[in-house]
Write a structure and sequence with these properties.
Distance between the termini: 26 Å
Shape: globular
Number of strands: 9
Strand content: 25-35%
Radius of gyration: 17 Å
Largest sheet: 5 strands, antiparallel
Helix content: 10-25%
């Protein structure tokens, strides 16, 4: 399934703001604008604000209140890093961020463990055939992650 296109960082933040309002969550946004401010542009020269093509990169860090703890770092390169209860999902396409958050807040996300090889994974299914899966450190298992466990 294709997700609505979010052409800019600001459009992604607006979509996240809508989800926060729908679920009664507070959110805090920190914006980094300019090649000298964004985290992936460490090679930008001093006082260099625009990219070589003249564009102004915009990165945002969004923290959402509530359980589970969620933060989203939206990068100018059309992807995001979403952290759910200290479990990091890298390289989530920007267009998939709203569906990812809806899945987490609507109770579709779950943890699944295996005895051999031992491990616990946080699985976030999105509409269609898209699923994100990340390993959870056993020591980092929070009450929310434990509560969302499914037995296989």
């Amino acid at each position: 399934m294709t997700h609505p296109h979010l052409p800019t960082t600001e459009s992604a933040v607006t979509a996240i703001r809508k989800i926060a309002a729908d679920h009664g969550l507070e959110m805090a946004v920190t914006d980094d604008i300019g090649a000298d401010q964004t985290s992936r542009r460490t090679s930008a020269g001093v006082f260099t604000v625009v990219d070589p093509d003249g564009s102004l990169p915009h990165e945002a860090f969004v923290e959402l209140s509530g359980v589970p703890t969620v933060s989203v770092r939206v990068f100018p390169e059309d992807d995001a890093k979403i952290t759910v209860d200290n479990v990091e999902f890298h390289d989530v396409p920007r267009d998939s961020v709203p569906a990812f958050l809806r899945s987490v807040y609507s109770g579709l996300a779950y943890t699944k463990g295996r005895l051999f090889p031992p491990g616990q994974w946080l699985i976030v299914p999105l509409p269609g055939d898209e699923t994100y899966k990340e390993l959870v450190a056993i020591a980092a298992l929070t009450p929310w992650l434990s509560r969302s466990a499914r037995i296989s």
